[in-house]
Design goal:
elongated; 9% strand; Oxidized Rhodanese, domain 1; alpha/beta; 5-stranded parallel β-sheet
Length: 180
């Protein structure tokens, strides 16, 4: 099965292959609306990082723009915001975001020494805390099992609500402070 072309998608969305072709022909500018930490971890070569929170107040390049984020939600929000503000040039977003770009096997740039993606950091921290709680409950005192339960409850809450306190805490750590 082949992936749809931009003509088959919304007029404001480009497939990864169409974006790759048009970007390679210098027909448009790619604006990555993810946070700098996400951007340095892997981005489309030649793209510009303007986080969604600063998109409306930034001076954007002239000409057609394609907004990109991790999964497509933030770029769609940015696209809607710019369209409502009457942006004068053609706008679109990458259908499926960077996840679709990677799945298509297209090239990415990554800054050397960039931190691990935030969700991997959450997985490592949560898994380590659960493991620590289980080990301590078996070797020190049975009450340590509540550490594993607390982490499990936090992950369940994060999945239901969309708010992950551990991710917010890890994002504020010194190793995650980067400048794009």
């Amino acid at each position: 099965m082949t992936s749809p072309t931009s003509a088959q998608l919304s007029p404001f969305r480009l497939s990864p292959l169409d974006l790759s072709r048009q970007h390679g022909e210098h027909r448009l500018t790619v604006i990555d609306v993810r946070e700098p930490m996400e951007y340095v971890g892997g981005h489309i070569p030649g793209s510009h990082n303007i986080p969604l929170s600063r998109l409306a107040s930034s001076t954007l390049p002239e000409g057609p723009l394609v907004l990109v984020c991790q999964g497509g939600n933030r770029s769609e929000k940015g696209l809607t915001s710019l369209l409502r503000a009457g942006h004068p040039y053609p706008l679109s977003s990458l259908d499926g975001g960077m996840g679709a770009w990677q799945q298509a096997g297209l090239p990415m740039e990554r800054r050397p020494g960039a931190p691990l993606p935030l969700m991997r950091q959450v997985q490592i921290a949560a898994g380590g805390l659960v493991l620590l709680g289980v080990i301590l409950s078996q070797t020190v005192a049975p009450g340590w099992i509540w550490l594993a339960g607390f982490v499990g409850a936090g992950l369940t809450f994060a999945g239901i609500s969309g708010f992950c306190g551990m991710a917010r805490l890890l994002a504020a750590m010194p190793w995650n402070r980067v400048r794009a």
